Amino acid sequence: MQFENTREFAQKLDEQDFLQSYRKEFLFPKVNDKDVIYFTGNSLGLQPKKAKQFVDEVMNDWASLAVEGHFHANKPWWDYHERLAAPLSKIVGAKPSEITVMNTLTVNLHLLMASFYRPTAKRYKIICEEKAFPSDQYMLQSQVRFHGYDPQDAIVEIKKRKGEHNFRTEDIVKTINEVGEECALILMGGVNYYTGQVFDMKTITAEGHKIGSFVGWDLAHAAGNIKLNLHDWDVDFASWCSYKYMNSGPGNASGCYIHERFHNRKDIPRFEGWWGTEKESRFLMKPTFEPMDNADAWQLSNAPILSLAPYLASLTLFEEVGMDVLVEKRNLIVSYLEFILKEIDAQVDSAFEIITPSNPEERGTQLSVFLHGEGKKIFDYLMDNGVITDWREPNVIRLAPAPFYCSFEDMFNFGQILKQGIKS
Ligand SMILES: *Cc1c(COP(=O)(O)O)cnc(C)c1O
C-alpha cells in the first residue's frame, strides 16, 4: 500500500479498520481535555470498559454470598481460573489443558524453574540474551546461586554483534551448540522488551532440544502481541504477564503454559499447594497431594478472584476478535507509523533512528526509536502534548500502537506533534 502522511489518508485507513469500533471499548486518559495518543500498551494496556462490570460482579457476589460464593457465585470462585484457559490457549497456541493462570510473572518463572532448572555437576548452565529484562536477570542469577553455582560461570549470555541493534538467530544457535551438554536451560524473552525484536522461538526451541536442554520463554512482550504456537513449537514452558498487551490491569495475574508431556508425571519436581490437587477431592483435606492432570497441578493457592475478573473481561474481547485480525491491523498500523517516522526524519534532518527490525516477521507492535541529541526534551514535549510513550536510557522511546484501541489518525497526529517537538 502506498501510504500518505495526511489526515485524510489516516482517516480513510480508520474507516476501513475492522477493529475501529473496539476503540470505544477502552478508557483513555486525557491531557488538555483530549484523549491521549497511547503508545504504552506494551507497559500497561488501557482499561477495557468491561473490566469494571466483571469486578463489580465479584464484589456483589462477595457482599451477598460471602463464603458461599466459592460454589454459588454467578461464576463460582473455586474454579474461576479455569475460565481463562480456553481463551488464553488460542492466544498463545496451546491446548487449554496446558494453560494455567496464577501469581505474577517473576514468581511463576521461579516456580517453573523449580521444575525445569535442575542443574547437575555436568549440566548446569542457563542461556539467555544479553541485557534481558532486569527481573529476568535477577531471577536467573538468584536461581543459579540458590543451586550453589556462580552466575559468572553458569549464565551464558547471547551477544549482539558490535554495531548491531538486534540478535541474529545464527549467533544464538552457535552459542547453544557451544554450550552443548552443559546447558540445562534456555530461558529468553520471546520479544525483546527494549528493541521489540521477535525471536525465532521455533528454531531456538528445536536447537535447544537437540542438545538436551529444556527451553522456556518469558512472553511478557509477546502474549497478545504476536502469533504464538507454543504447543506446535514444542516449547517446554512459558509464562507472561497480563497487564501489557492483554489489558488486564496493573500488576495483574500471570499466565503459564506447560507442555502436556509434563502433565501427570511423578518424576517432575514441583512446589505444590492445595489448588494443584485433584479438584474432586480438594476439600476432603487429604494429607497426600494428588496432582491435577493438567497445568493446574502447578497452582498453589486459591485464586485471586478480584485480579482474575478484569483479566477474564479483557479475554472476552480477544475471543471476539481473534489474534489473526489483531495481527493484521498491527502490521498495518506499525508500518504506517514507521512510514510517518521516516518522513519526519527526512524533513528534520536525521533526528532519530528506528532500532526495531524492519522485517514485519521480526517485530510486533513496538517500534523503538533512538533519538539523537536532546532526546529527553523531545520525550517531555510529547508527554506535555498528550502523547504517552516511554523513555528508556540512554536515549530510546518505545512506541507501541496497540491494535485494539489505537487509530491511524493517532499516528498522523503523533507525527505532527513530534515534528513540532523536534523543531522547538
Ligand atoms: C514486564 C516484564 C516483566 C515484569 O515482571 P513482573 O513479575 O510482572 O513484575 C518481566 N519480564 C519481562 C521480560 C517483562 O517485559
From TrEMBL:
Pfam families: Aminotran_5 (PF00266), KYNU_C (PF22580). This is Kynureninase. Pathway: Cofactor biosynthesis; NAD(+) biosynthesis; quinolinate from L-kynurenine: step 2/3; Amino-acid degradation; L-kynurenine degradation; L-alanine and anthranilate from L-kynurenine: step 1/1. The modification N6-(pyridoxal phosphate)lysine is found at residue 244. HAMAP family: Kynureninase. It comes from the Bacteria. Residues 46-246 form the Aminotransferase class V domain. Its cofactor is pyridoxal 5'-phosphate. Its EC number is 3.7.1.3. It comes from Aquimarina addita. Belongs to the kynureninase family. Keywords: Hydrolase, Pyridine nucleotide biosynthesis, Pyridoxal phosphate. The gene is kynU.
